[in-house]
Write a structure and sequence with these properties.
- β6 and β7 form a beta hairpin.
- The protein has a seven-stranded mixed β-sheet with strand order 3-2-1-4-5-7-6, sandwiched between helices.
- The protein has two domains: 178 residues, Vaccinia Virus protein VP39 (Rossmann fold, 3-Layer(aba) Sandwich), CATH 3.40.50.150; 70 residues, no CATH class.
- The chain is built from eleven helices and seven strands.
- The chain is of the alpha/beta class and 273 residues long.
Amino acid sequence: MIVDSKGSSSDRRFKFGKNWSRFLKVLNEHRIHEAEKSLQTMLAIGRLEGKSFLDIGSGSGLFSLAAKRLGAQVYSFDYDPQSVACTQELKRLFYPRDDLWTIRQGSVLDLEFMKSLRKFDIVYSWGVLHHTGNLWLALANAAVPVAEKGLLFVAIYNDQGFRSRIWKRIKKLYVSSRLGRIFVLSAFLPAFFIEGLFHDISRGKNPVHRYREYQQQRGMSVLYDWIDWLGGYPFEVATPDRIVDFYCQKSLALKKFVPARGLGNNQFIFEKP
């Protein structure tokens, strides 16, 4: 799907919110704690008291919740109404009467909307901007609400050349029809599972441990991340150099970089002088 500057769209878009609503059924205290730890590790900070946190594309709401539990004042928004509903559900469960957690529907491609927001100490958008249909506009607009001396934390799919182009076609097939979705899921989910199983057996590992380790990375679910990966369309990629050069031209300095493994997300933290 292509999303225009006001957030309108065609029908061919992966329903991220629907996938996140399923993820909430397996969300537990351990996953939330792991999400908190991942923020603390990447931001190199223990607590977020006194900090404002903008979650662009809040999805399930997990990382908005993690930032809130670390003490931040949180503003969450997402283009997908079901994702907004997921975030609202987490607020209802954990912070029902808290006025310092705001949740809205909005598009990062809408410059006027982004300008209407306050300035934030931490602007966070993990694995979101490459699904908007206009990656470079999304990257530019994400920098708008960063406060002076503030941080911009983004994660963007790594450009793997031909492999990335093949995956884009697979994702496009997934969203093309119900039949396309069934074909992609039935072809790749068993393949992912078998590949992981053989990988573990060949190294003498218990497969259960690997899935537990995956959960510990960011508190996420391997199954719902597989589905997110297979269906995640629109889909764009970028090399690390292009992202760094783009933000350097906007006077943002690279503070931290964690490279992707293959087709995964390169993680960047930029600082606004």
